[in-house]
Structure prediction request, 147 residues.
Amino acid sequence: MNGLTGEYSTTLDEKGRISLPAKIKAALECGSLVVTRGFDKCLWLFTPQEWEKISSSVMEKASPLNPRHRAVLRHLISPATEVEIDKSGRLSIAQTLREGAGLEKDCVLLGVDKYMELWDAKSYEAYLDENASTIDGAAEELGAIVF
Prediction:
């Protein structure tokens, strides 16, 4: 899934499923995705292979004796669930994850190279509006990026 980018509108159906866009389905080499809580009130979606790298890295650095580390583990690692993509290209999102991200009917799926983010459409628009003034500063923090 490396190199996957794009912003896609999708709809959450009455059974809590989203349809994956054709470009995303074509880029996936596996029949499942790992879905977990992200930050900024969205969900993160990974291929199982990418999730293994991320979760292993987090687990190596985190100590269950550190309360801040435990908070990250509970937020990111604990709710992670591998979900099969059905024959129609749909992904079922667990109710607890849907509720935590505030997903309603209209959603936005973002390709962020090695993972995807799933947002409620209204929450995503609000996020963009609230953070518009900080984007320049955040880009500067990345250092010298040459085009």
